[in-house]
Structures are given as C-alpha cells and as structure tokens.
Amino acid sequence: MAEMEQVPGPGRPEATSHAAIEQAAFRLFAERGFDGTTLDDIATAVGVSRRTLFRYYPSKNDIPWGQFDRTLESFRQILRALPQDLPVAEVVQQGVLRFNEFDPDADPPHAERMRLLLETPTLLAHSVLRYAEWRAVIAEYVAERHGVAPTDPLPETVSQVCLALALSAYVLWLRDPGPTLAERLDRSLADLRAYLD
Questions:
Q1: Sign of torsion over alpha carbons 153, 157, 113, 182
Q2: DSSP state of 147
Q3: What are the tens digits of pLDDT across the range 134-147?
Q4: pTM for this structure?
Q5: CATH top-level class for 67-196?
Q6: Which architecture, in CATH terms, is 18-63?
C-alpha cells in the first residue's frame, strides 16, 4: 500500500519531537551522567526552549520513561484484546510479554533506557510512581475478570508479583544479554504459574 503524504495540521509546526528529545538527552546522559545533565542542556542540544521541552515532558525524570503513558494505554488494549476465555494468569503472562516487546533498532536502545532507569539512584523514587501505574493496569484487569476491586488482595498481589518478575528479568538480561529478555520473562512467569498450580 502506498504511503499517504503527511499534510501538516493547522497552527504552528511542532518545534521538535519526543524522539529528538530522547536521543539528545540520552547522548548527554552518556557523556555527563543523568545527574550532570540539566534540562537547559537538553533544550540547547535539541534547539528548543526549556518551556517547549516541558510541553513534551513534565520533568527530566520523565524523559528516560519515553512516552510511557501511551504504552500503558497499549498495555490495557493488549490485555483486553487477548481471548477472554483464557485463564487470567495466561492472559496476564501474554500481556506482560507483549508489553515488554521492543524494537531492537530503537534509539535510544532499550537496554540503555532500562539500565538508566534501574541503576540511577536519582530516578528510583520517580520510577516507583511509574511502576505503580504499570501495576494498576494489571490490577484493574485481574479485578475486572474476578469481579472484585483493583485494591483487593488478589489483583494487588498479582500486579506486585508481575512487576517483581519483570524487574528481575530486566536485571538479569542487562547483566547477561545471552537469553533474550522475552525468554527470561516468559520463563519467570511460567515458573511462577507452575509453582502456583
């Protein structure tokens, strides 16, 4: 199918993009470290004002997370799109695996992004907030399937355990990229399901 020509919308043209900001920021993070890089440094590297930067990301801590809100919405859609006659645990496992698929040619590379998120002390508190949003997607789905509130023990526990398994898989993958992230994550989730059966 032929690509349609992109016609600019009304109003001012975009000054930059999420991708351009992330690429510049990650270059600076690699050179100066996360803490040694300011928002002004990033804005200058992208060629925009600090104010424009804030239109794309509410804080420097949000830049390594990319467009996480958008991916959370995709995660909700993934869980709802999977066959609902499957056991909840299988849907969650497949959903978590699909959520964690990434473009191997992404810029910045996914491993670089995750290493920064997992190994930068300054980002850990902010990451807890983002992880809570991720866990909420799972808790809402499990709660809906079981007819309980997302704050009930089952959905809360499932979401916490899935996060622990995902983070563990990432840590192991970053340490030794031999087995793929998907293989590590699938194995962890399958082992847990086997243990619980």
A1: negative
A2: T
A3: 999 999 999 999 99
A4: 0.87
A5: mainly alpha
A6: Orthogonal Bundle (1.10)
